[in-house]
């Protein structure tokens, strides 16, 4: 015989999931809006090239901005700091590849100096990131 409350109604032991679904959908919308904003990075005008462009996938990204500052992922370094620490960074985080991004306004000598440090640190393959040229 089922238990009944004082008023004679049966006991309801079901969980109301409608409010949980509402909260989940709200969090999903918030995540979808904020995820593209959280993808930061260094703002550089990449050079355009006719070759197939190489997009960094998940390895170590070294960026030289227009002012000549060197960014390793999100941290800013001077050239001396970069030369001193790049070997350790490449051995710990460069297993998925090392990518070099440089602003098109940066002098060629600055890019070559950074590339020389990368090669001297034992990185055999450096991907140069560029934007595709537009069709005419």
Short overview:
This protein has three helices and seven strands; from the N terminus they run αββββαβαββ. It has 136 residues and is of the alpha/beta class.
Descriptive notes:
There is one protein chain. The protein has 136 residues and is of the alpha/beta class. It has a domain at 48-132: 2-Layer Sandwich (Nucleotidyltransferase, domain 5), CATH 3.30.420.270. 36% of the residues lie in helices and 17% in strands. A 5-stranded mixed beta sheet has the order 4-3-2-5-6, with helices on one face. Strands 1-7 form a two-stranded parallel ribbon. Helix 2 (79-93) crosses helix 3 (108-120). The longest helix is centred in the first third of the chain and has 21 residues, at 18-38. It is elongated and about 85 Å long. The termini are far apart. The model has no long low-confidence stretch (mean pLDDT 80).
Fold blueprint:
Blueprint: H1 18-38, E1 48-49, E2 60-64, E3 70-72, E4 75-77, H2 79-93, E5 98-102, H3 108-120, E6 126-128, E7 131-132
Parallel strand pairs: 1-7, 2-5, 5-6
Antiparallel strand pairs: 2-3, 3-4
């Amino acid at each position: 015989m089922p238990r009944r409350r004082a008023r004679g109604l049966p006991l309801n032991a079901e969980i109301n999931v409608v409010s949980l679904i509402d909260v989940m959908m709200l969090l999903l919308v918030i995540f979808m809006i904020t995820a593209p904003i959280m993808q930061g990075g260094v703002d550089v005008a990449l050079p355009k090239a006719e070759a197939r462009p190489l997009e960094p996938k998940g390895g170590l990204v070294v960026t030289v901005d227009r002012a000549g500052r060197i960014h390793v992922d999100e941290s800013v370094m001077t050239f001396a700091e970069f030369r001193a620490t790049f070997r350790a960074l490449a051995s710990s985080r460069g297993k998925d590849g090392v990518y070099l991004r440089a602003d098109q306004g940066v002098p060629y000598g600055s890019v070559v100096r950074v590339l020389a440090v990368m090669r001297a640190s034992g990185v055999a393959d450096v991907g140069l990131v560029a934007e595709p040229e537009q069709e005419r």
